[in-house]
Amino acid sequence: MSLHLAKLKDVKFELKPPRNNPITPPASDNEVQPPLPENNIALAAKRRSEIQRKLRNKRIKKQQCEIKQLRQKVRDCQKKIWRMGKQKLTPNSKVADLLQNTTKENVEEVKKNYYLVRWSNINSKKI
Question: Please, what's the largest Cα pairwise distance for the chain?
């Protein structure tokens, strides 16, 4: 215990350097505080920058929300395309697709498929 007391005695407290304290002591709650200077350019600039920062943050937040919604739409469209790719095309659906597209090549292909199906049906009945 004596060692502990000796250590405390050896510790020297340094004086802190004086701060830039205001000349007048702070006013109590009862006293009327002096008014702030009205035309302080620095305060006005600071206030403008705060307002601009808030507006910028709102704009960024709105843009991020829009980006999130657009990404969700892209994901939904990709899922639809992926599901469409998984669907198996039956012969009837292929013919229906060919009939919707009325170019000359497709019409010829539809005719050829039609005659091929009829010919195969006739031959299957004969056998």
Answer: 122
Enter the tokens of residue 88.
């198996």
- CB of 110 closer than 8 Å to CB of 95: yes
Half-sphere CA count of 124, side-chain side, radius 13 A: 6
Query: Does the pTM of the predicted model rise above 0.85?
Result: no
Distances (CA, A) of 126 to 12, 101, 114, 117, 122: 119, 35, 19, 15, 6
Q: How does pLDDT run across 26-72, given as a tens digit for each residue?
A: 556 666 666 665 667 888 888 899 999 999 999 999 999 999 999 99
Q: Write the CA distances from 78 to 60, 64, 70, 86, integer angstroms.
A: 27, 21, 12, 12
SS3 25: coil
